[in-house]
Amino acid sequence: LTPLVSQQTGSKVLITSRSNILPASLYCNKIVPLENMEDAEFLALFQNHTFSGAEIREHSLRQMLEVIAEKLATRLGRSPLAAKTVGLQLSRKKDIASWKDALKKDNLSDPAKALSWSYDKLDPRLQRCFLYCSLYPKGYRYGMRELVHLWMAEGFIDSCNENKRVEDIGKDCFSEMVSVSFFQPIGHGFRTYYVMHDLIHDLAESLSKEHCFRLEDEKVADIPCTVRHLSVRVESMIQHKQSICKLHHLRTIICIDPVKDDVSDVFTEILRNSKLRVLYLSLYNSSKLPGSIDELKHLRYLNIINTSISELPRSLCTLYHLQFLKLSLEVKSLPDKLCNLNKLWYLERHGSWINYPYNTTLPQVPNIGKLTLLQQLYNFYRKIHLESLHLGWSYMDDINVEDNLHLEILEGLMPPPRLRGLTIQGYRSAKYPGWFLQDSYFENLETFELANCTALQGLPTNAELLGNCCSLHLRNVPKLKTLPCLPAGLKELSISKCPLLIFVSSDEPEQHDQLENIMNIDQLASNLPLITHVGPVSKTRDIIASEFSSLEQLMALMDVDMSRIENIRSVIEREEFVIEDSINAWICCHKERMGLIYGRSIRLPLVPPSELTKLYLSSCSITDGALAVCLNGLTSLRSLALIKIMTLTTLPSQEVFQHLTMLGDLEIKSCWCLRSLGGLRAATSLSDVRLYSCPSLDLARGDEMPLSAEELIIFYCVVAANFFSSGLQHLRWLNMVGCRSLASLSIGHLTSLAKLELVDLPDLCFIEGLSSLKLHLVSLKDVPKLNAKCISQFRVQNTLFVSSPLILNHMLSAKGFIVPEVLFLRNCKEPSVSFEESANFSSLRHLYLKECEMVSLPGNLKCLTSLTRLDILECPNISSLPDLPSSLQHIRVRGCERLKESCQALGESWPKIASIRCKEFI
Fold first, then answer.
1. What pTM did the predictor assign?
2. Measured by CB atoms within 10 angstroms of the end CB, which terminus of the chain is less buried, N or C?
3. Is 870 found in the same domain as 834?
């Protein structure tokens, strides 16, 4: 119903139903019975389905089939569902015998009979897969991969084709059921799910009732003893314990919805069923998977994604038939003997909470080479389905010591030539393997990455190897000195931690004599301690150490006397970090390095191909002139990142930026000597600008900021009060963290602003213009000098983040203020917090409390009658819960040991949460 939120005149809700009961209960203004289709319309619909797919080239065959189709259409009772189901089934077999066979069937006008006929025409293997779907409720959104994995684990799919993987056969089975309309695809974000029509679901349920059972009624007393596959959708499993334990032929348990009682006792009984093949848990209320899991000797599929299980027992490694292991994001390590699972085919670690990144990786898999399905490395090149390969070595040894054994290993790991992505990480040989140097070995290598390869001095010289490469990533290759001519089709280029890669334009004047003027030493020396005071000191120390390391490597390359930097070394390596001394040492270090860079006779430009769309440069050296040459003409560039580039003092001119017509994303981070954004304002498509820790940057008046900016993030910079005085009319999101010298902020003219985040701003006293903005999200955290009066008239529609109860209650007491849907109180230092009694909490649905020092929760939580979810995270001093509102459906407690103990079955707080459906304690 989201489109109706606007409440525009003329908006209507159209409801379809198979009975008159539902429309009446919804007080529908008008009920329109759907009449049968006309014969001609129905025939056209039926023929549209029957003659879909491959074209019938033989005219006489087409005519005969059309005659049969006309006869069939008269027997389908003008039912659109029957027309689609029967029609799609016939479309797969364009022969007269199959079509005439359909004419012999009675009652095809009944949709259920038509569906049954279509089911009978399925291959027996598909029939088993289809019936299995009855384990899920009507309206369930099926994922193809999840369902195929379950079919494989149940043994429904077997490979009789050596050239085709079992999973691909399973996907073919699924696609075949989609083709006959047993599944309907629906889009959801970037994913595609599938749903089943209610009548089709009824068919699956009626045909599978002896073997498949859905436990979704609390009042069910008995489960048929013939059941092999069980799904659970009840709030409490305890009362069904005996019934489940009597299912001696049980092969499957799938918990679709979380249960709210302690299921450990039931789970112990389940583990005694040694015939179990599939175990799918949801919200199991313990952090440990029981050691007795090893009793499930025939288990092939274990899914604990939607649980808080973080520890896996070593006994898991004795489940020798296990093929699928799906873990929650809470699992941080894997058992040592996991390599014993030589039938393990699929390993996944996934989290569903929004706080976690999507691209999370698995913890280290010990001895992964011993897993049988990955062990046949002698014929690695025959793995024709392999698309991407990551070869990595451990960091346990000294990564700077060359290891010739690495070359031998890589020689024996010849990958398939159809490989599309290759990453080599931790490689410690100066030579490439022979197969890597063969011309045209890779037919279509699109992505190539070198990471932590400490001995390599260059990329492969044969241009054909990377000829089709569209993505090149070089990360921590410290001895890399030169780059070959880059592939013409390159779209993404990333260079990070390659200190000997030095890009200087050929016509750039000698500048090492004017370094102090270029760098503005005084401004850098005064501003850097300011932002270090509010920012993470460890990062500053790491950057200084990294800069010194780069200087050492450059001096060694140019055979310069190292004794001249001993004084700098003594300060940087001092155990006690003194910011002023370290900054002065860094300035001396930087002067030395810049002198060497500009003093070199070799001038290496960086000239990427014109079709480049993404450029990422970090911890390497590129001068102002070289960057201008690099960016000139990149008309397809969409994203640019400059990280820890200490050689930059200004961005290129307007003449360069005006040609970057596609540039939409810019990130500049820890470029300490950058003083000016140059002609950035000429980048008319730039919408996302992120500036982090640039102490020399002059952020005043906003004249250099592009007018097209929609998202602006500024971390740990010195910002003048007049920076937002003009322009930025399209700005939707402003995020400032750890910035200094910003006593006031005038944002009333930013009429497009929807998200405002101000965090750790020790100098900010006043925000002007808040009341004129329609903000969806506001975050005010660690702003100690902020005048409460300036926030008394503003409104926020969706989400509010605060750290000060004083500021929060000032908002709550303001006339007309409505607490938004989500309220997040974080890093609160006060021992007690109370909510203003007169506040309007009618819209509040979700309350977060995180990293707070309070000893108790607000006593009037029970008054929050619309609250449905409560999260209490890392609040160690809270020991009990107050009375909670009856509307609460979900409570999550993490990092609160005292409160967790109080919420156990016999604890003080248990009666207050016993009726809550979803409870998580981590």
1. 0.65
2. N
3. yes
